[in-house]
Amino acid sequence: MLGGGAAGENAAQYATQFSGLDSVLVEGELLGGECSYWACMPSKALLRPGEVLDAARHVPGVSSIVGDARLDVPAVLARRDAIVNGLSDASQVQWALGAGIDVIRGSGRLAGERTVVVSTAAGGTRTLTARHAVVVATGSFPAVPRIAGLREALPWDSRDVTNLHVVPRRVVVLGGGVVGCEAATWLSALGVEELTVVYRGAELLPRQEPFAGRLVADGLRSAGVRLLPERGVSEVRRADVRATGTGLPHGGEVTVLLDDGTTLLADEIVVATGRTPRTDDIGLSAVGLADGGYLDVDDQQTVRGVDGQWLYAVGDVCGRALLTHMGKYQARVAGEVIAARAAGRNPGGDEPSRLSTATGHRAVPQVTFTSPEVGSVGPTEEEARAAGVDVETVEYDLAALAGTYLLKEDYTGRAKLVIERSTDTLIGATFAGTGIAELVHAATTAVVARMTVSSLWHAVPSYPTVSEIWLRLLETLEAQRRKTERG
Ligand SMILES: Cc1cc2nc3c(=O)[nH]c(=O)nc-3n(C[C@H](O)[C@H](O)[C@H](O)COP(=O)(O)OP(=O)(O)OC[C@H]3O[C@@H](n4cnc5c(N)ncnc54)[C@H](O)[C@@H]3O)c2cc1C
Ligand SMILES: NC(=O)c1ccc[n+]([C@@H]2O[C@H](COP(=O)([O-])OP(=O)(O)OC[C@H]3O[C@@H](n4cnc5c(N)ncnc54)[C@H](O)[C@@H]3O)[C@@H](O)[C@H]2O)c1
Questions:
Q1: Which cofactors are required for activity (predicted)?
Q2: CATH of range 372-486; options 3.30.390.30, 3.40.50.970, 3.40.605.10, 3.30.40.10
Q3: Per the count of CB atoms within 10 A, which of 17, 21, 182, 480 is most buried?
Q4: For residue 351, is pLDDT > 90?
Q5: Cβ atoms of residues 30 and 105 within 8 Å
Q6: Which ligand is nearest to the CA of 43?
Q7: Where are the domains of the chain?
Q8: Closest ligand relative to 325 C-alpha
Q9: Does ipTM exceed 0.90?
């Protein structure tokens, strides 16, 4: 495995555990990768305290006790540090060795068929030749747009903002996607006084149903965050630039010039404008592929364009869905496919769907931990229509439920289902509101199982839970259909 992030680890685990194949993880930094130390885990550690405080503020009997209290920032940062194990991967290495997986520390490059050359941390090189397969799981790093002065200003990226040690007074976040929205949520909760989010499109979270981005925008605005949509940055200037290290201010005041003529002053600028695959320097040209770009894979996660079915790619590097759980899913399948092929079977042929990632990619779930949360699975209405699918949709106000009223007196939220008309099956769902994260898996199950609307009627949600949204959506859909029938 070239890269020992969440995806590489899982591919090694599945190849080893289910087949007895020997696996080696080649890791250049920390075993566990981005998710454990600089992405999912620290970000969620920073978001959870704000969520708890917000919940308390909206329940009479608790709100009066909490009053205007702010978060205990040193305690929040200390818990974050504990959650990232103080940036030590000792426990991960122990896990790998215990699972029978070898770990080699160093930077690896493909050097030919089934061959990886590692520049080891100790200073030498090692050539590894795999008997069966090489899995590329090198992940991605933050993309920094070409903007005059931006790179020179040493902006914070996702590593800095998840591992911040100082809360700057004024921050500009560039990008209104998942990282930008989540980072704005925790920076605001941690007490950034002047927080501005600059983004290109009209809505935040542009890959979600538009109502989700609007509700997140309302949440951020009510927390005092300034949103500047449909704008870009034309130039960045910074005095006294200093490479102080991850999560510390990288210099003096930042001047951010926007393309509409606005000038913003900040103590830090956070770049959250997407990711770049780590493929520019891993020896792809040695196996006949172009350096750089996402690796194109089939549903067994085998890299296309390389003969012999020995090269696989999983996780962010294959660009199919840049999410930890999807990378791990691809890795589980790849690990088992490698084992099956080593045993002489051909899972790419008529093997049943367990050894294919096609089904899971029809139903990609994602939760964005903003306030309100946004959870979704499958395509949005726009994506489904763009793919040529004739769909029917239904929406409902999540605030009109007993379960949500109990959570928060002034609850706001919305839900939407996307139904394929020809089969009457659920293909997509989106929920935006407090406490919706755990609704997503029910929707994922229904989409994967291709549940029809008539069978969903028999899945009875418990009272009084947020899951009652399912019943309300079905009732509304039925009313819509009757109205259409009546003409
Ligand atoms: C701020 C933030 C928050 C996120 N939150 C979530 C979330 O809540 N939920 C979610 O599902 N996803 C989340 N993501 C996305 C998630 O972090 C990624 O999808 C996931 O980390 C990808 O895992 P990976 O194993 O493919 O890559 P990585 O985690 O990037 O691992 C790749 C590994 O390969 C190593 N490597 C690279 N090149 C070489 C080489 N040449 N030789 C040796 N080793 C090498 C790297 O050091 C690294 O350890 C978040 C991302 C960000 C930025
Ligand atoms: N909770 C989660 O599941 C979670 C959390 C964080 C990140 N992630 C994953 O990490 C990946 C990366 O997230 P991201 O937010 O960096 O990328 P993204 O692609 O989700 O969003 C990038 C945003 O930056 C904007 N942008 C791009 N270039 C710009 C420019 N020059 N000026 C202004 N705006 C610009 C885009 O319009 C978009 O709003 C995502 O694919 C996501 O799946 C997941």
A1: FAD
A2: 3.30.390.30
A3: 182
A4: no
A5: no
A6: 1
A7: 6-32+89-141+277-342, 151-274, 372-486
A8: 1
A9: yes
